[in-house]
Amino acid sequence: MSLWWACGSSGKNEENTLTPQQVLDSIEVVTGVGKLLPSGGFITITSTTTGVVAQVMVNEGDTIRQGEPLLQLKDSDPAYEVAQVSAQLESLRAANASTREDLAREELLLTEYERLYHTSRDLVKKNAETPEQLAAHERQWKQQLRVIESLKLEERANRLSERELEVDLQHKREKLAELTLKAGDSGVLLEWSVRQGQRIEPQTELGTLGNPDSVHIEAEVDELFAHRVQVGQAVVLRYVGRPEVLGTGKVSYVSPALSEKSILYEIPGEGEDRRVRKIYIQPDSPNGWLINAKVECQIQLN
Q1: CATH superfamily entry for domain 13-40+211-300
Q2: 3-state secondary structure of 159
Q3: What one-character DSSP code corresponds to residue 289?
Q4: What is the pLDDT of residue 2?
Q5: How far apart are CA 209 and CA 11, in angstroms?
Q6: Cα 255 from Cα 262, distance rounded (Å)
Q7: Strands of 69-74's sheet in order across
Q8: Which CATH architecture has domain 43-75+179-210?
Q9: What pLDDT, on the 0 to 100 scale, is given for residue 5?
Q10: Dihedral Cα 132, 135, 141, 146, nearest 10 deg
């Protein structure tokens, strides 16, 4: 009503000709309050296993990339087990390679013994060789067949053992990898509370990741002006309580519904119950903003 008097009355005897709604509709700038948030949201970094922090590899404020190691947990058993199984696997692979070489040589001998047997059989038919010589060649050939079969069984068993060790090694490497916590996303460490010697459990919250170079403002406008806010309207931005202009932006999203309470009040009783319209504002130049800062948004309605 005070705004209505200011705009519609210029003297004691002059009657106001504007309705309260007309006064509200004549306002060209409305101020909303918002918070500066990463466009991708806040990403909580959690642990995936149990252990004691042996090494912290990053600090709060660091820019990190997806897959970059963040911390190393202390546990010597998995590393020892990986080394042990790796040595067993290499030894088995070497033995298996030697068996395959032996098998290749024996198969060449088998081919030669089989040739001698068939030649001797043909000669016996022509009475050019004795049956005793044929029997000797047959024994030699069949004995070589048994040698080949034995080597094949050994090589097959080695392959199975090799496969079992490969699976076991992969499992142990995965267990060891769990002791190195890596970043699941890229961004800046906004919070990082990990200290060397700290014991952590699965799903322990360790820090928060966000991207300050890709931000937007989530703001609220009083229901009196909610119907006049539209996507594309220009906005002048200031930190709450500060006179200097930080930058400009544009309304990028307007909620289709009114909310009963403001989400921006952090102290009980700081704001009274009221309905507001939630909007998003995209800064024209997002660099250099303070994440989570309250921002005053002056929206150009007309």
Answers
A1: Efflux pump adaptor protein, beta barrel domain (2.40.30.170)
A2: helix
A3: P
A4: 33
A5: 59
A6: 14
A7: 180-182, 69-74, 51-56, 199-200
A8: Beta Barrel (2.40)
A9: 34
A10: -130
